[in-house]
Amino acid sequence: MKVLKKTFIAIALFGAALVSYAADVKPYVEADALPDALNYYPAPPDTMSPQFMYDISQYMWGKTMRLDSARAALAVAQAVETIEEMAAMFSEPFGMEISAKKTPAIMNVLERGIRTLKQVGSKAKRHYMRRRPYDRFNEPTLVPAEEERLRTNGSYPSGHTIRAWSMAMLLIEVNPAAQDALLKYAYEWGQSRVIAGFHWQSDVDASKVLVSGAYPSLHTNEIFMADMRKAQAEFKKLNAAAGKAAAGKAGKK
Questions:
Q1: What is the rounded average pLDDT of the residues 116-140?
Q2: Whole-angstrom Cα distance, residue 168 to residue 240?
Q3: What positions carry a catalytic annotation?
Q4: Rounded distance between C-alpha atoms, residue 95 and residue 182, angstroms
Q5: pTM for the full predicted model
Q6: Exposure string (b/e) for 110-136, b if CB count within 10 Å is 16 or more?
């Protein structure tokens, strides 16, 4: 219950910050220089297709997963949208606390990198304006406070999954040794959107492809490459210091 309460408070407190986020953080690469999902990725499944039947089966699977209180709590916790909240949650699989205070260089590359990559979903969302599962079935989600706002926000692709997959990709470049843990956590983040009732499985799957397709564009930007080198150097320095501290404590035992 503490996790649920904390998440609802976070959503309320950071809602206003989300409005100004796009204006305050400059992307490394503008949207028109990124791959256009409408030109290479399929439209959402037709409602009479076998693929949509799979979407429905996954929606039903998600509702059964809500019976697992721990998994349901995780799905609610992963409903946050700010980079700060996400970074705090990704700290465990990353292997180090990520915050503006502790890791400013890493936070900078996350903020600008995600600001860049999240652009890949905007055009498709507006173009398809796919109806969300909870709205289609007129059923409750795990985060009721978000339901009304998201009814007018297209379901395809999933913005939360785009941000989570982007964060994982960026953090893997900073700390490759954590790649398995980061990808697993980002995968679970996407599935949380199905479990919470906000997205179809195909929304989530599309998001990961769109991010992966756009990620190489970051490497064409010299500022990104310079910022990534700073983030990598920051991680190596802090990781080395943590290793020495741990060795020192072990030696005193």
A1: 98
A2: 22
A3: 160, 193, 199, 203
A4: 10
A5: 0.89
A6: bbbbbbbbbbbbbebbeebebbbbbbe
Backbone CA torsion sign across 185, 186, 191, 192: positive
Residues 6+ apart with CB under 8 A from 39: none
Q: Tell me if 17 sits within 8 A of 190, measured CB to CB.
A: no
Q: Which residue has the tokens 């809602």?
A: 15
* Averaged pLDDT score across all residues of the chain: 92
* Contact call for residues 199 and 193 (beta carbons, < 8 A): yes
Q: At what angle do helices 2-24 and 69-77 cross, to 10 degrees?
A: 20
The answer, yes or no, to whether residue 1 has pLDDT greater than 50, is no
On the question of pLDDT at 11 being above 50, the answer is no
Chain position carrying tokens 């990808």: 183
pLDDT the model gives residue 23: 57
| pLDDT confidence bin for 251, thresholds 50/70/90 | low
149, 37, 139, 82: CA torsion to nearest 10: -40
Q: Give the whole-angstrom CA distance, residue 85 versus residue 78.
A: 9
Distance from CA of residue 168 to its chain's centroid? 8
